Amino acid sequence: MPVIRITDVRDARLADYVSLTDVVLRSRHEPERGIYIAESASVIERALEAGHRPRSLLMAERWVEPLAHVLEAAGAGPTGDVPVFVAEADVLNAVAGFNVHRGALAAMNRPVLPTVTALLAGLVGGASRVVVLEDIVDHTNVGAIFRSAAALGADAVLVSPRCADPLYRRSVRVSMGGVFQVPWTRMPDWASGVNELRQAGFLVAALALESGALNLDAFALAAPERVALVFGAEGDGLSRTAIDLADCAVRIPMSGGVDSLNVAAASAVALWALRRPVS
C-alpha cells in the first residue's frame, strides 16, 4: 500500500481522524467503530508491541522517512497493506482539530476485552494487586492511574461501565503507554465484578472517607495476599453502592486540614503502600 497524499480535509478516508478534540463525539464514535487513536511514534510503537494492529496512519510527509521503522512494524507503507495518509500541516490540523506535531497518528483496531474472570485467570503467576475504577470521567486521571499501576506493580485494572475510556488518546498519552502494559477490562456491572474478584480470592478495599475506615498504614501491614483497591470519581468519590459492596474501607491519613487527594495521586500512594519487593 503506497503512501497516499491527501489535500482535501473532507476526504472520506480520514473519517477516523475527524474532530479528535471532541471528547463526547469520540467517546461514542471510537468504540462504535472499534477503533482508538494512538498519537506519536512512541505510543504507536507501544501499541504494536502489545499486539494491537493499525487500520491506517496519518502524518505530515516530512515524518515518513524518519518513521520508516514504525511503518514497517505496523505493516504500512510501500511494503505493507496498511494505508499511510500524508498531508500538509494545515490539512492535518483542520481534520484533527489541534496542532498535530507528535510525528504521527494511527487509527488502531480496538482489542476485544476479556471478562473479569478470564483476565484474572490469564495473568502469568496469578494476580495479587488489582485497581478498580468507578466512574472516573477525566481521561487525564485515568491515564495517570494506569501509569502508577504500571510503575508500582498492579497486575490489572478494572473499570466500571461509566468510567472514561482508557484508550482515549489523552489517557494513552498521559499513561506513557501504561494502558498497553497493564492488563485491563471493563466490568459489566458492579455486583458481578466484585463477585468475580471475591471468587478469585481478592479482598475488596474501598478508598473512602468513611467513619471507621482503616488507616492505610495499618491496612498495608496486615494486607492479605490479594487486594483489589477501589477508587471513585473526582469530587464525589465512591458511590454508596461501591462502598457497601466492598469488604472494608481504607483512608489515606492526611494533615494540614486536607481531607483527600486527587484520585490519581491517591492511587499512587495506595499502590506504593501495598507494593511488593522489587528485585
> Major β-sheet, in short?
7 strands, parallel
CATH uppermost class of the largest domain: Alpha Beta
Query: The CATH topology of the largest domain, please?
Result: Alpha/beta knot
Class from helix and strand fractions: alpha/beta
CATH architecture classification of the largest domain: 3-Layer(aba) Sandwich
Taken together, the total number of domains comes to 2
**Proportion of residues in extended strands:** 15-25%
Provide a quick synopsis of the model.
With 279 residues, this protein is α/β, with parallel strands linked by helices. It has 12 helices and 12 strands.
Please tell me about this protein's structure.
The protein has two domains: 3-109, Ribosomal protein L30/S12 (60s Ribosomal Protein L30, Chain: A, 2-Layer Sandwich); 116-273, 3-Layer(aba) Sandwich (Alpha/beta knot). The protein is 34% helix and 18% strand. It has helices at residues 23-33, 41-49, 68-73, 89-96, 116-121, 139-151, 169-174, 178-181, 190-199, 216-221, 240-245, 263-273, and strands at residues 3-5, 35-39, 54-59, 84-86, 105-109, 129-133, 156-159, 184-186, 203-207, 214-215, 227-231, 248-251. The strands form two sheets. A seven-stranded parallel beta sheet has the order 8-7-6-11-9-12-10. The protein has a five-stranded mixed beta sheet with strand order 1-4-3-5-2.
